Amino acid sequence: MSDGGDEKLSVEARLGLVAFTIDSEPHIRVNQDECRKCSLKQCLFVCPAKLYTEEEGEIKFNHEGCLECGTCRIACPKIDWNYPRGGFGAHYQYG
Amino acid sequence: MEMEEKFDAIIVGAGASGLGAAYSLAKSGFNVVVLERGQRIGAKNVYGGRIYSHVFEKEIPGFKEDAPVERWVTSERLTFLDDSSAATLELSSDFSSENSFITTLSKFNEWLGKKVEETGGLVISGIKVDDLIIEGSTVKGIVAGEERLFADVVIDAEGVNPILAKKAGLRGDWNPHEVAVGVKEVIKLPESVIEDRFNLNHGEGAANLFLGYASRYGFGGGFLYTAKDTISIGVVVRVDSAIANRISVYDIVEDFRLHPYISKLIKDGSPIEYSAHLVPEAGIHGVPKLYGNGILLTGDAAGFVLNRGFTVRGVDFAFLSGVIAAETIRKAHEEGDFSASTLSHYEQRLKESVVFRELENFRKVPNLLSNLRFFETYPKLLCEILKDAYTVGEDSKKIYPLLKNKMRDRVSMITLIRDIISVVRNL
Questions:
Q1: Closest residue of B to A82, CA-based?
Q2: Superfamily of domain B6-68+103-174+284-352
Q3: Which is the most buried residue in A34, B28, B201, B317, by most CB within 10 A?
């Protein structure tokens, strides 16, 4: 992994800097029926961790790496959004 | 935790407002518990980097000697940024009153948590409150996993995502134009390097806000705060602007870090943490109903943040709202009544406090800062005009023709003057 410098760090590399305890169950779920009707697909670009992806017409969400900000739930009220269970998720040291 | 035990107050969230309430209640001998979903206090808290100290000095004896201050701000900078240039206004002063300081919120809240425990309050980490126990229209307690806990009153200090406040019927959710997403990187650098680069003495700090390029010329801005041996840099973008401009939010802070002005300031420093958080941006217009039967709403969940473009205040407001909630609960306890009519004292007292006075005083600011010219036209204009003015060639132009030329097709002189007046009047 690059240590920054003059090169752009990928979001994956930056997420590697955050301490996480990952739960087995996702705390956020997308509803494919709603996603299919959606033309904006704002979840793909507003998530600061880039955890929403589109694969073969389906929106996928990867809860590992979630920064728990809530931007996606503001941008899309159709997302079934929760915080992770107590003690799970991100552990910020310099928040 | 005993299932039958009834607390005087249950506080949801160990942020600045929840801990402010707990500190004040525990000091008066109340039986309070703070439930924090993070593995430890501070694990979920994120902000830019600066806290205004006035409120804390008033409320916590010996605050200055004891608090985890990394640097006192002595250099205030406002920078207008275009793609390649930066025009900075700096106020460098001794600020002998020690007005604000730089620290991390994780560390600060951890310290506040210790203060609460010293005064006899109980903070339990790793517990997420899933729901409220509501009987009729009265909040009686909380549900956390299998546990049900009861109290005379619940202080909802859950933070910017108002999941419980919505369930309590105190508020609806934020609209995208009422909140911003902030993303931050923390860069590690030696203490002496930071002091040399920012022209600081030992223990002094610099706070820098940015308009223009950082938020891709949309509503929002950038920030930089020098802590002891780290620098926090970040970008804040209003969610409606991120959606409308299809901004890749996951890239904005890296683009900011690699801007020629920023990259020189943090040269040889490597990012050690990446984080994101929402920020209330609606000012007084974002303040919802603050109380119900058996419940009070504090901090970010109540929208207590004031962004004036060149200063942003939230942590001190949050703490004070918690302290005022505690005061209300003492009064309700005396009267033996925790109904909405008694708890309405909270709103009355808040209205007399600095929180409402400031939010009210700057009520036009969110609207003023909804003017895109402040984020695109003016930062670009200023950089371009100064660049031309300082460039010596064959034929140098006077400032006025330069200004007129640059303003053409972008903004009229009348509009410019109007905007200046509205800034001077309202900001």
A1: B163
A2: FAD/NAD(P)-binding domain (3.50.50.60)
A3: B317
